[in-house]
Amino acid sequence: MKITANNPNRKSWLQVDRDSDFPIQNIPFGVFLTKEDVVTIGTRIGDYAIDLAALQQLGYFEGIPLTDDIFMQDSLNDFITDGQTTWRLVRNRIAAIFDLENKKLKEHKKHRNIAIFKIDEIEMLLPVEIGDYTDFYSSKDHATNVGTMFRDPENALLPNWLHIPVGYHGRASSIVVSGTKVRRPLGQTMPQGATQPVFGPSKLLDFEVEMGFITAEANELGKAIDISEAKDHIFGMVLLNDWSARDIQKWEYVPLGPFLAKNFASTISPWIVTLDALEPFKAAGPEQDPQPLPYLIEHGEQSYDIQIETSIKPRKKKETLVSTTNFKNLYWSISQQLAHQSVNGCNVRSGDLYGSGTISGKEKSSYGSMLELTWKGTEPIKMSDGTERKFIQDGDTVIMRAHCKNDAIRIGFGECIGRIKKARKYPKE
Ligand code: CA
Predict the structure, then answer these.
(1) Arithmetic mean of pLDDT, 97-122
(2) Total count of domains within the chain
(3) 141 CA to middle of ligand 1, Å?
(4) Which CATH number fits the domain that encloses residue 41?
(5) What is the residue range of 253's domain?
(6) How far is the CA of 428 from the centre of ligand 1 (A)?
(7) SS3 category, 308
(8) Do 236 and 206 sit in the same domain of this protein?
(9) Can you say whether residue 272 is alpha, beta or left, with left for phi > 0 and alpha for psi between -120 and 50 degrees?
């Protein structure tokens, strides 16, 4: 099926600013609460949120096989389960409804009032009910930096890293939508030089710049997803801040890997940008040497050119840009990650979230965590208000933004924002 929604020449009758992340070629999917307290599935064009349940009730999706309540849901899971053909039909139809030349909704004031809201009139909610969350570790520069800091600069990458998209199963229950405040975690740490662990607020709170992809139901338990078909089962992508408490992590991670240092919160951006919308921005990832095992071999351009910027905004102060990186820095692709995740027969379900792992590039300015940017706190970052940061302080807001751009269009992800609240009082509130 032709993805007519991607036509770069199409203009919308809705106002879209030139530097908007959401031109009519984007058509992401999300879930929001209207000012009448109704939860609905929607999309966004410019600074307008569009209620897809209302459009369906008004007959605008006629001819597309959809169940009556597919958009009257508090998550996208059922819609994602319907599969790629349905996603494409719906995106193509939305593009047609809002095409500059289409007068049907444009000139129907009553319908417009029912289905279109200004973006500041609605509240974005978590777009999917996330059953399972996997977090990979797929940036070679990040893995090398961390290995250099914590183990041995001579053997920074462990022997498996160039053969396996290394990952672990994370926690789905604490994944929150952008804008949700995050409380500094309490936990157990072993201070430098101490002989007994102590309990208290994490002192080394960090962000991790990641992108996440969200899957459709893909394989039965016991069967694998072939790498050549992996992308057919990926609905789209979001920005992901995988908050990390480095002092807790350092003490707890041996031998089973990250645990409480990671599962207190992970923040995602609210609009899922479809892989279809990202199609014009496919790009080559790094060359893979040694060649991966056959089940991980893929052909063609498998990454995406997505620029990601991260800022820190101290309370009541201006933000400072601290990291500019790119998704195409990742060594392992999303197809390789999904093929690997399922190769043993592990089943992939609708609404699962897969984190890329921290995305660092070669340059210091492209590192994707404070751990790397300040080299374990030894090289603090200067903020525009004159203060310094080694890690994230109470009251700081971490803002991630991402977009793709070519000569014709810009497709973006909006913002992934989280502000740190001070830790809970110990031992009691
Ligand atoms: Ca991570």
Answers:
(1) 98
(2) 2
(3) 14
(4) 2.30.30.230
(5) 133-421
(6) 30
(7) strand
(8) yes
(9) beta
